[in-house]
Amino acid sequence: MCGISGYFGKYILRDSLIYSTLEIMKNRGPDHRDFKRYSAGSNNIYLLSSRLKIVDRRNRSNQPMSSCGTTIVYNGEIYNIDEIRRKIKGKVDLRTKSDTELILHLYNLYGLKFTDYLDGMWSLAIFDRKKNALLLSRDRIGEKPLYYMESKNGFFFGSETKFIRSLNQGFKSVNDKKVFQYLKYGYKTMENNNESFFKGIYKINSSENLILNSNFQKKIFKYWSLKLNEKKVSEKSAIEHVKNNFKKNIPIICNTNLKIGLSLSGGIDSNFLLGYMTKYLNYKIQTYSIIDDSKDKRYNEEDQINLGVNYNKVSNTKIYLSKIRGCFTKLKSLISYHDKPVSTISYFLQSLLYEKMKEDGIKVCISGNGADELFAGYYHHYNLYYNSLKSKKEKKKFKKNWTINLLPLIRNKNYKDLDKKKLSTHFTFFKNDFFLNQKIKKNKEFTFLKNKLKNKMLNELFFQTMPLALIEDDLNAMYNSIENRSPFLNKQLIETAFNTPTILLMKDSYNKYILRKCLKNLTHENIRLAREKKGFNASFDSIFSFRDKNFREWFFDDGSPIFNYVNRSKYLEKFSNQYEKGFPDLNQQCLFNVCSAKLFLENIQNQS
Question: Is the pLDDT of residue 331 over 60?
C-alpha cells in the first residue's frame, strides 16, 4: 500500500514544499519516498510517492516508475498478477515482480482499456509524456481513495485531502455544507457525493477515470458499471455460484508471505473469513477483537468471539475498552490524520485494533467489508425484503418467523413494523433550530431498479455505508502503515450477489441467508445461526466521560468554532440537561458526531 500525490500547472514547486508533503505521506509509505518532475510544454508535472513494501519489496519496484514515455505513481493491490503476466508475456520485458510495473505495461499496450484487465484495488496517476496528459484512475468499488482540486494555482491530486492541501500551500477552506450535513444527518451523508470536507477538493468516484490534457481540459468517465440481471436459479445453484467465487478469489486476495491479521467480531462475516482461511487455506492467522466490557452489555460480543476462536483454534488478542487510556487524545490525533471528522464510534474502535496490530508487526489486515451490502445484512433490509414479496403465503410465513425471532431484538422503532412502506434509514440528530443554517438538505437516494431491497443495497454499496467504510478503513490502516484487504468486494462476487434471486436473500427470515449456507462447518453453529446483529460498536460512555472535568470543560467551551454552525444556547440546553442523567441510544452517536466535528474544526483552526 502506498500514498500518491501530485501537481499539474504553471508553477515550479519549492523543494521544501515537496519534501514537507512527502513527510506528511510517510504513514502510507514508510519504506520509501520520492518524486519526479517533468515539463509538459509550458506546464510542470510533479508525481510524489510514498511506498509501503508489500509485493516485490526490492528497491527496483520503488516509485515513481517509468517505462516507454509514461510514469506511474500507484496505491493498491492487484490480485490477478499471475494472469496478467501470462497475458503480456513476450510483449514486454518485465524487470520486476511488482504489480506497479504490470499496470504501466497494460496502459502502454492497451491504453484506457487497461482497467479491463485489473482485479483488485487501486488509485493511480499516470503521466503520458507522449500526449502531455495526466490520467487518474480509481478501482471499481472505491477501496483506495483519490482526490483532486482545480484552482488558479493549478491541478492537484492525492490519496488524502491533506496531501493536496499541503501542495497547495496549506489550503484550509472548510466545506460548511458538509459539516452541517454530518451534524444533522450523520455518517450516511459523508460519502454520498464527491465533495470532501474542504471547498473545491473532490473525490474521484469508484470506477472512474479522469484525464487532464495540457490545456487543462478535464474529462471524467466511468469505465465499469454493475450489470443487473436477476437470474432464475435454484437455491443450490446460487450457493454453488458464491462458493465457487470464494474458492477462486479468496486465496489470491489473502495471499501474502507477510504477517497477517484479521479483525474479528462475533458476526458471521469475519467468522466466515476466519473459517475459510484456517480450514481451506491452512493460514496461521492472528485475530484481534474489541470488547466493550462496560456495564452496557448491548455491544459486548466476547462470548460469540470466543466461540469462533475456539472452533478454529486460533489466537485472539482482545482489547478491553475499560483498559484503554487516553481515548480523547487518540481521537484527536486520529481526526488530525483523517483530515475530517471520524464518522462513528465504530471506526474509532477500529483504529484501536490497527494500533495493536502495528505493535505486533502485522503488515496485512483482512476484514469483512461488504458482506452486509451484498447479502442483505441490516435490520431494515427485513422490511424491504418483506415488501418485495409478492406471494401472500410467503409474506405470512416470513412475518411469523420475523415476529418470533427478530422483533424482540430490534431497538429502532422505525424497523418494528414490517408493513411500513416508507422506511427512513437516515437518522436526523437535531432539529433545524439547533443550527445557524436551517436549510440543510440530505441527498436523495438513487434509483437503480424497482426492487426496493436491492435498490437500497445498491445505494449502500455505492453511496452510503460502503464508501464510508472503505475510506475509514483505509485511513485507519494507513495511519498505522498496514495494508487492508476486503475479500468480499471482488468484482465477480458483487455481480453474483446482485444477480441472486431476491427471494433467497432472507429466506426463513435469516439475513445473509446465502452466506450462512456457505458458512456451514466453518464456524460454530451458534454464530452461523445467530439472528442478533450487535454490530462493531460501543456506547459513548465506555470511551468518554462527562465525569472527567477536562473533557466536560472542552465539550462546553464556548470559544469553539463549532458555534459557527450550531446555536450556542440550544447546544448548552440540549447537552447540559442530559449529561448527568445519561443519554438515550440515538444521542450516543449524536454525542460522538459533535465531538468528532468539534475536534476537526478546532484542528483546522489551529493550523498555521
Answer: yes
Query: How far lies 462's CA from each of 6, 246, 451, 458, 469, in Å?
Result: 26, 22, 16, 6, 11
What's the confidence (pLDDT) of residue 397?
Answer: 94
Provide the CA 108 distance to its chain's centre, in angstroms.
Answer: 31
CB atoms within 10 A of CB 224: 15
Nearest residue to 47 (alpha-carbon basis) of 66, 30, 28, 29 = 66
Helix ranges (H only) for 168-267 are: 176-185, 235-253
Output the nine-digit C-alpha cell for 34. Answer: 520520492
pTM for the full model?
A: 0.95
CATH of domain 235-329+346-374+452-528: 3.40.50.620
Residue environment code for 118-146, b if the CB has 16+ CB neighbours within 10 A, otherwise e: bbbbbbbbbbbeeebbbbbbbbbbbbbbb
Cα torsion 416, 417, 422, 424 to 10°: value is: 0
The three-state secondary structure class of 346 is helix
DSSP assignments along 541-603, one per residue: GGT--TTSHHHHHHHT-TTSGGGGTB-HHHHHHHHHTTTTT---HHHHHHHHHHHHHHHHHHH
Query: CA-CA distance, 7 to 535, in Å (whole number)?
Result: 41
Q: Which residue has the cell 450516511?
A: 188
Helix, strand or coil for residue 164?
helix
Among candidate residues 329, 335, 349, 343, the one with its CA nearest the CA of residue 599: 335
The answer, yes or no, to whether the previous bond of 64 is cis (omega within 30 of 0) is: yes
- Look up residue 409 and give its DSSP letter: G
Alpha carbons 377 and 589: distance in angstroms, whole number: 21
Three-class SS of 179-203: HHHHHHHCHHHCCCCCECCECCEEE
Task: Provide CB contacts within 8 A for 243, sequence distance 6+.
Answer: 518
Q: Is 535 exposed, middle or buried (0-12, 13-18, 19+ CB in 10 A)?
A: middle
Distance CA 75, CA 122 (A): 6
C-alpha angle 299-463-253 in degrees, rounded to nearest 5: 75
Residues in the chain: 608
Please report, for the chain, how many H helices and E strands are present, in that order.
Answer: 21, 17
pLDDT > 70 in the chain, percent? 97
The pLDDT confidence band at residue 318, using thresholds 50, 70 and 90, is: very high
Domain ranges of the chain: 2-222, 235-329+346-374+452-528, 375-428
CATH superfamily of the 2-222 domain: Aminohydrolase, N-terminal nucleophile (Ntn) domain (3.60.20.10)
pLDDT digits (tens, 9 = 90+) for 49-94: 998 777 757 777 678 999 989 999 999 999 999 999 999 988 988 8
Which pLDDT score, from 0 to 100, does residue 308 have? Answer: 96
d(C-alpha 501, C-alpha 593), whole Å: 38
Question: SS3 for 518?
Answer: helix
